[in-house]
Design goal:
- The chain has one domain: 2,3-Dihydroxybiphenyl 1,2-Dioxygenase, domain 1.
- About 30% of the residues lie in helices and about 35% in strands.
- The chain is built from five helices and eight strands.
- A four-stranded mixed β-sheet has the order 1-4-3-2. Strands 5-8-7-6 form a four-stranded mixed β-sheet, covered by helices on one side.
- The longest helix is centred in the N-terminal third of the chain and has 12 residues.
């Protein structure tokens, strides 16, 4: 009897971001330096464009491709795949938990990210800062510092209003 194939490969999660960037090879290097990403696979086209790459950041998988690759061109024609730079921004933000948000934030800035908001302690218990990577994607880098109930967060915010 044939072995039943799992609905999702080992190591993957139900939702996997797929980033469109304007220089995927450079993006892989940035994510390695900034977030400690490990490149699991890369499919390059003859011209060097990245058809797709798979990275692992912590316990999460991220896919990415060049917005000008042959593969992405098919998606662009369908209106699916545009990089944040080609759109003038992005409505999508990545909230990433790390052991030390201050250190990872500094590393990301040193690797070429731009500060949006510095790392600070938030009322919900996370220490978090936000940045834009060189490709236009927004990342919130956080470390959970204390447990705060949702009810208490609502009270804190109401008291400030």
């Amino acid at each position: 009897m044939a072995k039943k194939v799992k609905m999702m490969p080992d190591g993957w999660h139900n939702v996997t971001p797929f980033l469109s960037v304007n220089d995927a090879a450079r993006a892989v290097e940035f994510y390695r330096k900034a977030f400690g990403a490990t490149e699991l696979e890369r499919m390059a086209e003859p011209d060097g464009k990245v058809n797709h790459a798979v990275l692992k950041i912590g316990d999460s998988i991220v896919r990415l491709s060049d917005d000008s690759s042959k593969h992405a061109a098919e998606w662009v024609a369908k209106g699916w795949s545009r990089s944040p730079k080609s759109l003038g921004g992005t409505p999508v933000h990545f909230y990433v938990y790390v052991e030390d948000s201050d250190a990872v934030f500094k590393r990301a800035i040193a690797a070429g990210a731009k500060v949006m908001e510095p790392v600070v302690d938030k009322e919900w218990g996370d220490r978090v800062g936000s940045l834009t990577d060189p490709f236009g994607h927004i990342w919130l880098v956080a470390t959970h510092k204390r447990d705060v109930s949702f009810k208490d967060v609502v009270k804190l915010r109401a008291a400030r209003s």
